[in-house]
Design brief:
Layout: H1 3-17, E1 30-36, E2 41-49, E3 56-64, H2 67-80, H3 85-90, H4 93-100, H5 109-126, E4 136-137
Length: 143
Amino acid sequence: MGLGSDMYRQQILDHYKSPRNYGEMEEPTFSHVGENPSCGDTIQVDVRLEDDEETIEYVSFTGDGCAISQASASMLSERLQGMTLTELHELDTDDITEMLGVTISPMRVKCAVLARQVAQDGAKLHNDDIDDLELTNLEADEN
């Protein structure tokens, strides 16, 4: 591994030990919870939209889990601010692994994408794009 990989590993550890935007938001526009039972990760993502109901103003999260899931949630909470819901829906696994900056083993991909999937599902529920989803479960989903 080169110097760049070490830098990204340090960034992941930094976000894990000192997560950004961690905590429950008062009066979010929408909130959703998800889990990755294979690793024990749980995440709640709270999103506040701007008045246009499309642009993400602020994102916070709470949860427990491995360093990858928690760091990914922290990094994503920073990245989503200012994006539109359409841009959120366009994020895929490659975008998340690129954001993390390290190669993620197949066993850890669900850890890395949990926060993204929870945010996407929460937005779909908010927009009535899906009827009822109490909990995003990555064991059941193949994302």
